[in-house]
Amino acid sequence: MFWLTAFMTINIIGLIALGVYFEIKPLSQQRPAPRWFKTGIGSNLLLFVAAEAALLLMGLHDAMAQTAPVAAAHDVSVGFGLALIGIGLPTGLATIGAGIAVGPVGAASLAVIAEKPEVFGRTLIYLGLAEGIAIYGLVVTILLLGKI
Q1: pLDDT digits (tens, 9 = 90+) for 66-92
Q2: What is the pTM of this model?
Q3: How far apart are the first and last CA of the chain?
Q4: Would you report the helix, strand and coil content of the chain in percent, each value rounded to 5?
Q5: In this structure, is residue 39 part of a structural domain?
Q6: Same domain for 86 and 40?
Q7: For residue 113, how many other CB atoms are within 10 A of its CB?
């Protein structure tokens, strides 16, 4: 079980390193993507999904097992850990979605405010709507934490 978690951690670190590499040396029209790019990203994604599926299937018996009523409050099983990961996913994914939404909306807002300063209030509303996505994810996470 621990080797699967270590394998997934290595995959995530590799993906972050690749992102840093392409941040430092971005691709351009003159410089095509390296040959290893598509196969490397595809195999990384495939191995990550396979390791995640194996981790879920191997930990399924712990997640479905009956717990003793006298179990200590500090016992953390694989099922409880997977539940906490699942509870954290809405906040993480909603925050990523909000970041993707706020970027273009903020850039467009600054461009419009430079031309027409009187529309400042409307642009704040649009930014608030884009940022609300993250708040919805946080609310879902809080509701799910109450179910544990």
Answers
A1: 565 555 556 778 888 888 888 888 899
A2: 0.47
A3: 24
A4: 80, 0, 20
A5: yes
A6: no
A7: 15
